[in-house]
Write a structure and sequence with these properties.
By secondary structure, the protein is α+β, with helices and mostly antiparallel strands. The chain has helices at about 1-20, 35-60, 130-135; strands at about 65-70, 75-80, 85-90, 100-105, 115-130. It folds into 2 domains: about 1-60; about 65-135, OB fold (Dihydrolipoamide Acetyltransferase, E2P) (Beta Barrel). Strand 1 (about 65-70) and strand 2 form a beta hairpin. The chain is rod-shaped, with a radius of gyration of 25 Å. The mean pLDDT is about 80.
């Protein structure tokens, strides 16, 4: 998804540059009309908006995961379909035995241990885990 956003932003900037770089030939020299100034201002504002959106999507990496919370000796873990995460941060809000959706940040993995997940908030509590999800 990130590559698609980059292509979209690159294409938008390229189109804005093409619109502002069209040469105009006139016999008596360059005459800037109000419509030319409006086009240039629109292209600059559009390029600025694309740059701001690009920076936002490049920096803003809020992850969410959902799974079944289980109690372990060191705290609480979240078991998803394919991974197990050790919950840190606002983990006391997560109750063992509940299926929850969490917003936060995936931390760097440590060899031999479940990947840590820094919990910012509980997005949704689906209630108790089903027998199939707990297996």
């Amino acid at each position: 998804m990130e590559a698609g956003i980059r292509r979209l932003l690159t294409g938008g900037v390229f189109c804005a540059l093409l619109l502002t770089g069209i040469p105009r030939t006139q016999a008596q020299g360059p005459v800037i009309t109000k419509s030319d100034a409006a086009e240039a201002a629109g292209a600059v504002v559009g390029a600025g908006a694309l740059i701001v959106l690009g920076i936002y999507f490049a920096v803003h990496r809020n992850h969410s995961i959902s799974g079944c919370a289980t109690a372990v000796a060191g705290g609480v873990q979240l078991e998803t379909d394919d991974r197990t995460y050790t919950l840190i941060g606002n983990a006391p809000e997560v109750k063992a035995g509940d299926r929850v959706k969490l917003a936060g940040k995936k931390e760097r993995a440590v060899a031999g241990a479940p990947r840590p997940f820094f919990v910012e908030k509980v997005t949704r509590d689906y209630g108790a885990c089903t027998a199939h999800a707990a297996q």
